[in-house]
Design a protein that fits this description.
seven-stranded parallel sheet, 8 helices, globular
Length: about 250
């Protein structure tokens, strides 16, 4: 944990998978808006480094909470640490996830189990733990990261697409259940975004995909983060149970 000033009345957000990519962009966006940010990563070193960098850049309280999203006991430990430090949680950004691609018949059972454990069950575990803490104050916002693959399918990524479809369905169901407790649940479904996940694509494959996007470009992690921040804010106080694409109109 980076040395920071004592907690105050500012809102607190937990961002999972926040050491890089979309998660890091989300953590930066919240910090730039004055939120205290709990940074989750699978490794203590990754979480601590991101927390220290964000605290130094934005001057907000941060907390490093390491833990695998697929491990329910590790997830519970994250929230114990958050309560001990901040005594509150106003928003959760469920971003942690792993890629699982390959032809349908070539996906190894262990690979598929791991993807569902982190992407789908991890999202569920975090919603459970976050909502218990949010219900103490009778308010909160949860934003889950789904994917265009989860809403439209994807050849060559069946298992990954299925985990993201599970997140979309979980979002709608949790919104119905938690809404009466003052907790909103929404999801963002990114399309082709400039992150490490594009590293495995050949230039010709990338160009082929970009050609299908009406806006004719790849999206940025910051553009996803802008929507996530909005959905977590009071400006979105009547938005609940939605899965919103950030895909440039990608078919």
């Amino acid at each position: 944990m980076a040395p920071m000033s004592e907690p105050d009345d500012r809102p607190v957000v937990l961002v999972t998978g926040a050491s890089r990519g979309i998660g890091r962009a989300c953590a930066e966006a919240f910090a730039a808006s004055g939120w205290a940010v709990a940074i989750n990563s699978t490794t203590e070193a990754g979480a601590a480094r991101a927390a220290a960098e964000i605290a130094d850049k934005h001057g907000v309280p941060t907390l490093a909470v390491a833990g695998d999203a697929g491990d329910d006991k590790a997830v519970d430990g994250c929230y114990r640490a958050i309560f001990q430090r901040f005594k509150r949680l106003d928003a959760l950004v469920n971003n942690a996830g792993i890629l699982c691609d390959g032809p349908l018949g070539m996906i190894a059972p262990d690979q598929a189990r791991r993807a569902f454990s982190v992407n789908a069950l991890g999202t569920l575990f975090h919603i459970q733990a976050a909502s218990r803490l949010m219900r103490r104050r009778g308010t909160g916002a949860i934003v889950n990261l789904s994917s265009i693959m989860g809403t439209r399918g994807a050849a060559g990524a069946s298992a990954y697409a299925a985990t993201k479809a599970a997140i979309a369905s979980l979002t709608r169901s949790a919104a119905l259940e938690l809404g009466p407790h003052g907790i909103r649940v929404n999801a963002v479904a990114p399309g082709l975004i400039e992150t490490d996940m594009l590293a495995g694509l050949k230039p010709e494959q990338l160009a082929e995909r970009v050609a299908t996007i009406p806006l004719a470009r790849i999206g940025t992690a910051d553009e996803v983060a802008d929507l996530v921040l909005f959905l977590a804010s009071d400006r979105a106080r009547y938005i609940n149970g939605q899965v919103i694409g950030v895909d440039g109109g990608m078919p």
